[in-house]
Specification:
heterodimer; A: three-stranded antiparallel sheet; 26% strand; globular; B: mainly alpha; ABC transporter involved in vitamin B12 uptake, BtuC; disordered C terminus
């Protein structure tokens, strides 16, 4: 039997005071690579933000490792959508990746040699160590995405939650990200990823959550990612 | 001329304004990078009625109570802005304009009232809080600036990394356990301590400049956050020294405008000469063009 790392029970949530998620109940198995798919405005980002406790649900609950404790959140690394970051802020790529280590630091403690080493390793994994002293704002879209993934890797989390990491990036970066995800999954990590390209769901993911405000289906890709479910999710939007 | 430079009073006042402007440069960099420069302006103007009100309540112009009044009204203004933007359709710039003008208007009205009122004596000095008059600063004013700046700087140093992460990526900072409300309160505290204690030196109308101009100067010279902070802080301090000197040596020149003009001079120089400035940017472009042929 598979162990569930995230359990969502009867979740209702709103985004900017508009209810977008209705009665969602689902489980995300440990060590899975789960895609969240659905049309625009289906509540995909709201769902992961609720998981991260960035949005307070109207009702229902999200449990990480069976617990609602805020401490469990530190086991999740979050990769934001591009627009959420202040690009005018002067920070080098290395600075940004090192930020991932602060989750394990107290209020006063500064990162030590080991933290720097881990940040550098993460940069190497994402093959951007050559850019480490560049300003993050000077990087291309794909390179920025690599830097944020490197920050998540430096966090050394159990769960990686990503909001459309493959949107608007080059093919090389996309392949690299998928390769890194596979590698991390083999070492026991779990991935929950908002994904918008339906044609690659079967190839990249083993689990899927199909969403359009309410849950259409959730489970193993081969059982839930059917034409019928997809049509159900996307047709409602059209009507 | 040398008389001024060696005068003990001048030195004390100059140290006060320099410490203030240095801290202002650091605090202002946070607001500028968060895109909230004008919140400092609204708070600056809003502190003025606080000064007049505490004078009316206590009856004397005493450094600490006036600053306390300034802080209280500044905080009320800040939360009023938040309430307005949260609970109405008024946008942030509308709320800022509204709060800035109505609070400052209240301050002016209260000042006219007490100045024409025989029940209140010693009202002349209240004018100094509008444009700043460092020459009339008391040693208690300088001590208060130093204490408030020290608290601001200490908070800044303790929470330096949290502040950095919060400015760059507020969503990420929440996911690693940095409390957003706490950060907002921290930034407000750091900023308001500078504003409230700097009123007598720089004045309510212009105080925002010692927050914004150094931050802009710092950003023109460097792409590294700690360097931006230090350049901002030291430009502020330099301008404060020059401004205080001009104001003390010259006749009837308010300190606020003198400091602001000095800061503007540094800013104009930076706009032309800094690596991101007009002159160098042209040169840099040529270089990039050359790189293409490598």
């Amino acid at each position: 039997m598979t162990e569930n790392i995230i359990t969502i029970k009867n979740l209702n949530a709103a985004y900017q005071e508009k209810p977008v998620l209705w009665h969602i109940s689902l489980d995300i198995p440990k060590n899975s690579c789960t895609a969240i798919v659905g049309p625009n405005g289906a509540g995909k980002s709201t769902m992961i933000k609720t998981m991260m406790q960035l949005i307070k649900p109207l009702s229902g609950e999200v449990k990480i490792n069976g617990s609602k404790d805020k401490h469990e959140l530190k086991k999740i690394a979050y990769v934001p959508q591009k627009g959420e970051v202040n690009w005018d802020f002067p920070a080098t790529v290395f600075d940004v990746v090192l930020m991932g280590r602060y989750v394990h630091k107290g209020w006063i403690k500064r990162p030590n040699a080991k933290d720097r080493e881990m940040a550098l390793e993460a940069l190497k994994t994402m093959r951007i160590e050559a850019f480490k002293d560049r300003q993050i704002s000077e990087l291309s879209g794909g390179q920025r995405q690599r830097a944020f993934l490197a920050r998540a890797i430096a966090q050394d989390a159990e769960i990686y939650v990503m909001d459309e990491p493959l949107q608007g990036i080059d093919v090389t970066t996309e392949n690299l990200i998928i390769e890194v995800i596979r590698h991390l999954q083999q070492s026991g990590k779990t991935f929950v990823i908002v994904h918008h390209q339906l044609d690659t769901v079967g190839e990249y993911f083993d689990h899927a959550i199909i969403l359009n405000k309410s849950l259409i289906a959730a489970g193993a890709v081969e059982t839930v990612f059917t034409e019928e479910n997809i049509e159900k999710a996307y047709r409602e939007k059209v009507n | 001329m040398m008389d001024v430079l060696t005068s003990f009073t001048f030195l004390i006042v100059a140290i006060g304004t320099m410490v203030l402007a240095f801290t202002g440069g650091l605090a202002g960099t946070i607001s500028v990078m968060k895109g909230q420069s004008l919140i400092g302006d609204a708070i600056g103007h809003a502190t003025f009625p606080g000064v007049v009100l505490s004078f009316m309540l206590i009856g004397i112009r005493e450094t600490f109570t006036l600053a306390l009044g300034a802080i209280i009204l500044g905080i009320i203004a800040f939360f009023s802005i938040q309430m307005i933007t949260k609970h109405s359709k008024v946008t942030l710039d509308g709320a800022l304009a509204l709060i800035l003008s109505s609070f400052f208007g209240l301050g002016m009205a209260l000042m006219s009232f007490v100045q024409g009122n025989p029940d209140y004596g010693g009202t002349q000095g209240l004018n100094d809080y509008i444009f700043g008059q460092a020459a009339y600063m008391l040693s208690s004013d300088v001590y208060l600036i130093i204490i408030a700046s020290a608290i601001s700087l200490l908070l800044f140093i303790i929470f330096y990394h949290q502040i950095r992460i919060y400015i760059f990526d507020p969503v990420f900072s929440r996911t690693i356990g940095i409390n957003e409300n706490f950060m907002n309160l921290l930034i407000l505290t750091i900023t308001i301590l500078v504003i409230a204690t700097g009123l007598k030196a720089v004045g309510a109308v212009l105080i925002v400049n010692i927050l914004i101009a150094p931050a802009v100067i710092g950003q023109l010279w460097s792409n590294r956050f700690p360097v931006v902070l230090l350049i901002g802080g030291f430009s502020g301090a330099t301008a404060a020294f020059t401004g205080t000197y001009i104001s003390t040596a010259g006749e009837n020149i308010a300190t606020g405008p003198a400091i602001i003009l000095s800061l503007s001079a540094i800013l104009v120089l930076s706009i032309f000469l800094s690596p991101k400035g007009i002159l160098r940017r042209g040169a840099h472009k040529g270089k990039l063009g050359e790189d293409q042929y490598d």
